[in-house]
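REQUEST FORM: STRUCTURE PREDICTION
Request ID: SP-0412
Submitted by: Lab K.M.
Chain count: 1
Length (residues): 820
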Amino acid sequence: MQAAAKAFSIPEAKARKLLLKGWVIRDRLSSQQVLEYRSRLQRIGLRVEVFPAGQYDNRALIARLEHARKRRRPEEPVAKSSPGDAAVAPPPAHATPAGRSEKQPVKGTQGARGSRAQRQLESLFDGSDATIADPLSSRSALLAGLPGAVLVPAAFSLLLAICIYSAGSALWEFGLALVAGEAGPGSVAGLLLSLLLSGLVAALLAWPFFGAPRLARDLLPEARPLKRSDARGLYLLLDVLAEKTGLPRTPAVTVTAGSDIRVEATKLSEAFRQNLPLQVGLGTAYCLTGNELLALVARQRGIYRGRLRATVAWLALETPRRLQWMQWAMENDRSVIAPAGNTGAAMRPLHHLLTLCGRGVIPILDRLEAFHQVVAGPAARMLEREGDRCAACLIGSDAMAPFAEKWHHMVHADLVVAEVNREASIAGQRLENYPRAIQWTMRNLDRETLSNLELAMGQQSDCWDTAAPADNDRIAAAEELGLPAAIRTEFSVQRLIDDLPGLAVDVSADIAAPDTRPVDNQQLLTSSEDAEQALRVIGEYFNRIPPRRFLLLEPPTEESLAAMGLQECIDWLRTRLVELRELTGRLDELAVRTPAAELGIELLRHSVKIQPSDFYLEGSGAAAAEATLREFRQQRDGAQVQYLQIQGVFALRLKRAIGSMKSDDRSWADSARRELEAFGGLAPHLDRLDELARILGLGIDRLSLDSGQRETLQKFHGLARRGLQIVQHRVENSETLTSLGLGAALEQRLAGAGRVGMEELPGERQALVDALQEMELRCKTVSATVNEHYHRHIARLLRQCLELEKALQVKPLRLVGELS
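STATUS: Completed
RESULT:
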């Protein structure tokens, strides 16, 4: 949310309210504005959908939300906890299989303690039969959806068979010609050409599809195998679940730091044999009860229950994943001969040929994925409903609504924590215990966020993502089944895993860069609370139109304005609020257009072909582009003059309030005002850092990052590097800023500056993207750190002024009806 607020220059509270999926945030946009908003939102991890102007009504979502509320139980009060409170209610005695021997079998009676642990876990299920039914109608529907699910995989199989047949036929014909003594140079050339074409087609399409997990290994989440000896209780619980419900058994478990539970169905043979490993995010062990965790496990296993269903599930759900992995591999210069992107000198020409041809295959893969989602969509939705039915069999249909709400909260908390961890990595830091951070964030979601998440449940979930939380329609379908709960006693799984905290720390390190150091969760998760309070004070003082950077502390020189008193200043400002909002919006728009135009001009100077409209340029020539950039800067300078005039009256209002204070308070306020003046010298450098960060972001989003663009990117990367050094140097040489703690704050946030301060950009594409992203985030981090420090200090002064104005009964700065 902080990234969204920064990217679009809106308060964080408004970003949190608007940027959750399922709510229209902008209407009547041009195509260029749509591209800009969508690219920036997707960069920070949000899903964006574009509709024709005026044809998407938010009221439909509100109506669905009200319909869902009528079905649900009254909401429980939100429990708040301290950052260090990560304990879950201890499980009852029958849920703790402690003391069982390491090699004790699940079934049988070879040990009294093992039998007792199994009986304790079996007692979680009530005495009735918990076997999940598999009606004939469901299997018949799956059989009807099988042809659509098999089309695209069959096409790749047929393509591979054709390539093999073509190569084999060429070899056979050459062998016959060789035996007959008719082989000559033409036969050899024909054989080589046939083998080359067959191998090229197979290496571009067929082999990457079947070997996609190997190509996209860097894209897959880091998972750590969980041995049975390290989690005997969990494995025993999963065995009991399979025995009681008829779901497939779990041969192996891997753990990650996130909040997803998935079945790792990488091979069709594993699905057919019902031998599917399970991937468990440890965030679920901290956030959910044992009942809810088992419901997620049952949902995943239920999708692959039975050979027919497992086959359809693999064909329908694994195919789009493999197509996406193929696209990622081709975009990042991976090939079947160099899955990691690196190869020897002898194979490098062939690798370059495959990567070059792969760029042309990407649109074909995109269309194949869209076609598969159309023909296999019915099968995917049937599998989704089957998974929900299995989950409802364990916790009961009546519990699906609160369970789905908790599921949404956990997924949202995981997204927030991932962003916190990513930002902390810039400074060489990471969360010490990532799963526990998810739990704390989930428990401390504010009311507004919870309300927006409830609204987001009205958005249809993605049936192609087996870990997507249930939406209102899926909840209603599960409730209509009227299934009783197979498990009625709540328990915890935390004691079923040996040394869960240590394992959580280990997986937290797995997902972080190797050169980052662990930092206490509380230090990173609660670092912005003071900043949020400061923003509320600033929003009240400026009527929700805070200064774009720093408040100009010089009052106006015009006599008519300089002579105004406190109430006159506020009355004058009230008449200018609409104009101030328009000027702020115009300056924000120019802050987007100017860096884009600067990047476009630099690309034109290096003879790089661009689409001028993508960079807000009116012509493809360098002269016309430079004229557009000059026009943008002139518009910015003109709007800035009017903007600073209004800001000057705010400074005069502040001065009049300080003059009305008592002597002690006035001395403190004058001192605080002088301290704030030290920030003014940083403003132009921070503005430039913001422009360079936006340029680097545009380079990542809109450029192909080939060798012709490297010189341009190198220039802006170097400018950003020098800009960071200038800001740090000015802060270090300012006694005022140092005494305010800004230098220490920057040093803490950028503790890893030395390791990312490279002067030359790397040559490999993914490494280049990483370097540009790191520099972009460092620029944003420095700007955000200075802003946060400034906001905290000015908020203390503004709070005193607001209290004084209330004591003097000054009419507040507020428009009738308040601008939204």
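NOTES: The chain is about 65% helix and 0% strand.
Reviewed by: T.R.
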